[in-house]
Amino acid sequence: ERPIIVAIDGPAAAGKGTLARRVADALGLAYLDTGSLYRAVGLKVLEAGQDPDDADAAVSASKTLTVDDLARPGLRGEGVADAASRVSAIRAVREALLAFQRHFAHSPPNGLRGAVLDGRDIGTVVCPEACAKLFVTATTEERARRRHEELRARGEAPTFEAVLREMEARDARDAARAAAPLRSAEDAHVLDTSNMDVDSALRTALWVVRSRC
Ligand code: C5P
Q: Which Gene3D superfamilies does this one have (predicted)?
């Protein structure tokens, strides 16, 4: 039996993570936040005092990655997000992380019948065969507002303008890179969450999965 694979892509703070987790819970599927892989590589490189644009450093970090690295508390900060976006533009880093992601999708842990993966290139590169694809977006202002609130709730205190600028820089880099740039798959359902609460986004997502998988 083929696993149910749900691909959820989109820019930073569009609501992918929350949505992906809720879809996985509702359908009894495994969940993988693929951004945490790139964040873990970025964090390793920073901790080693190396430069996230240094391909050799980033590739070695991606080859020594373990599952424990994906749950580290330092992963969610802004500095790590920036490093993640830099290491993720290096083609050899993306290739080193590909097999893990595909294996997770096709052989989900705990005998579950499928998996939800969220990221930037799940529907286009990692799992183009996914039965359901969602491209989740929101306006840059709205995403910066959400990210700003999230950072403040965690005790970080950047200004809204700083968060907005950082978000624009990261979006531009993710969309402009040659290796697996951020874009919607042609067969993805586009979901703009700018004026949508989590429950209505979930209803739409579940409808897409149930009608396509
Ligand atoms: O989703 P999140 O913001 O945690 O991802 C951090 C960074 O990792 C993104 O800005 C992006 O550069 C990179 N990423 C990626 N491909 C993925 C997931 C994340 O390039 N599938």
A: P-loop containing nucleotide triphosphate hydrolases
What global pTM score does this model have? Answer: 0.95
Would the ipTM clear 0.95, i.e. be above it? yes
Q: State the amino acid at position 108 in one-letter form.
A: P
Tally the C-alpha atoms within 13 A of residue 76's C-alpha that lie toward its C-beta. 14
Distance CA 20, CA 5 (A): 12
**Per-residue pLDDT averaged across 49-68, rounded?**
96
- 12 CA to centre of ligand 1 in angstroms: 8
Average confidence score pLDDT of the chain: 95
Helix (H, G, I), strand (E, B) or coil at 117: strand
Does 64 belong to an annotated binding site?
no
Task: Pick from 16, 53, 88 the residue to mutate for probing ligand 1's pocket: most ligand atoms within 8 Å of its CB.
Answer: 88
